[in-house]
Amino acid sequence: MKHKIVVSLLFVLLVSAAMIVVKYSMNDPELKINPEQEKPLKLFLYEQILNKGLNHYDYLTLREVIKCESSWQQVDQNGETIVSSGNIGLGQINQLAHEKEYQALSLNMNNAYDNLMYVVLLYEREGLTPWRNWSGHCWENKIPTYPKRSRK
Q1: CA 45 – CA 23 distance, rounded (Å)
Q2: In the prediction, which pLDDT does 26 show?
Q3: Which residues are CB-contacts of 123 (< 8 A; sequence separation ≥ 6)?
Q4: What pLDDT, on a 0 to 100 scale, did the predictor assign at position 145?
Q5: Residue pair 82/76 in contact by the 8 Å Cβ criterion
Q6: Residue 50: which region, alpha, beta or left (left: phi > 0; alpha: psi -120 to 50)?
Q7: Which among 48, 53, 93, 146 could disulfide-bond with 120, CB atoms 3.0 to 4.6 Å apart, if both were Cys?
C-alpha cells in the first residue's frame, strides 16, 4: 500500500514539475522558438533529463550551462547554425572531438534537439567537465548545489 502511495506521489510531482517547466519555458524571453520546432527547447531538455533518470537539479544546471554557452540560440539571424571556435549549437559541442559519436548515434550536429540530446548524454557520462574550462566562470555560481552526484 505504501509503495502505491509513493509511486502516485512521484507521478504527481513529475507531472507538476513538467507543467511548471512548460509554464516558465513559454514565458521565458531567452527561449527562441522557431516556427518549425515541435516543442520548446527547454521542455525538450527537461524531458531528455527525466528520460535518463536525472532530476530537476540536473535540468537547472544544464539550463544555466546552455545559457552561458549559447544564450539558447542554435542559429544566427541568417538561419545558420552557430559555430564558435569549432563548437556547435546550444551546448557548444566541439565538432572535432564529438563528430564520430554524433554520427554513430545518427544525430545531426546542426539540429537543436539533437544537440540537446547529446548535451544530456555528455553530461550523464562526464558531468560538467566538458564545459567547465570554457564557461564555468559564467555558470558555476548560478547552478544549484545539491547532494545528488559529484560533479566532475
Answers
A1: 14
A2: 47
A3: 54, 58, 61, 62, 130
A4: 73
A5: yes
A6: alpha
A7: 48
